[in-house]
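Changelog note: in this version the structure field was regenerated for every chain. One regenerated record is shown below for reference.
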Amino acid sequence: MTDEFDVIVIGAGPAGENAAARAVRGGLTAAIVEDRLAGGECSYWACIPSKALLRPIDLAAEVGRVPGMSLGPLEVSKVLARRDEAVSHYNDSGQVEWIKNVPIEFVRGRGRLDGVKRVLVTTQDGQETTERVLTARHAVVLATGSTALVPPVPGLAEAKPWTSHEVTAAQAVPERLVVIGGGVVACEMAQAMHGLGARQTTVLVRGGSLLAKMEPFAGELLAESFADAGIDVRTRTDVLRVERPEPGGKVTVHLSDGPPLEADELLVATGRVPATAGLGLETVGLAGGRSVEVDDSMRATDVEGGWLYAIGDVNGRALLTHMGKYQARICGDVIAARANGGDDTLPAMRDIADGYGAPQVVFTDPQICAVGLTEAAARKAGFPVRVVEYDLAKVTGAYLLGDGYRGRANAVVDEERRVLLGVTFAGSAVAELLHAATIAVTAEVPLDRLWHAVPSFPTVSEIWLRLLEEGLGL
């Protein structure tokens, strides 16, 4: 086997795979190193399994709002079985075959930097450890993603709590579940587990609301939905210590206010940290344990020679799979262009979307989705802001989805340039509205032009007309 390639990628998640594939498309040779499953966190322990678990909950809620229709109890075993199918039963053979067919050489093992353009791959086979050194002619790409953050609460780490990794792979649903955190993972998995049978689900939030990084109304609507479903949300609550005397036994969570909580399982969803530990960053003059700073071509800014790149969660720009893949496309194209002596200054070879604010969907009921800046962020950045809100329930298409529809739309407008800075939707089935908003925000479509994009009737997308007519006077 050859040990020299044009490009070496460490990490075979969606970002790493896309970067290697784009480099190969540009005429280069590539190897990709992975010590776990090819396909990465997203495919097996995050995006794919979490949405497979959430879909039945979402569909049951939608059907329940339509008069004359109802669903019986969910068959949890079948939901978990479909989740297992969605993650290919944690078998990556199909993904490895795809990588090899690109063609990219797949190297199974733990990869770490070992100096300039060098990657040391360690493979453990039983008691035997083997090492292989790969060298890159042009570039090494770090695509190792991130890991769950477990806060330094006394007893918490020792209690072996669930993180996103364990909850999405759960083979049984606990009757009593405590969730620490109020972000996307905490909200999605609290609703999924509760819907699948966690009869007592408690969400503990240090701050004052759910989804604090989004527009306030989004967290408020979700909190109402949680309350209706029987999920107990406690804001401004600190966890003082955690006790779990027996491995896998009952867990006791001591709080800053109120009596302790006893549960069968504890989920920690308080954020992510870049997976740079043990990556050998110190061998190229970088500090480990933090994200790798990059420029808009994804090249590491503090490494001499310009040969090191970092994409996806590991660079800390936007911890979202689709943004990691976007960065990967840029990265692979840039590396190929530079290797071939071509022009790498084209806008398509630079990260532009991050500057506008990454699109994101929270797959709860109601769905929450947003792109661009919130009102608070826009005002902080000094934009001349006007905010328009509209009750989604007043749109005919939303009414037809079912009785008791609750939802809201919000648009943040730059009054000087008359373009959208950000858009947020909250309501049933709003996720498919997001890409239109993403185009409007990132393309900076003038509002006077956007008014001529006629929404079909009767669809929920008629919200665009209502925002423009009533809120913007068009």
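Spot check on this record: The mean pLDDT is 95. The chain has three domains: 4-39+92-147+273-353, 149-270, 366-471.
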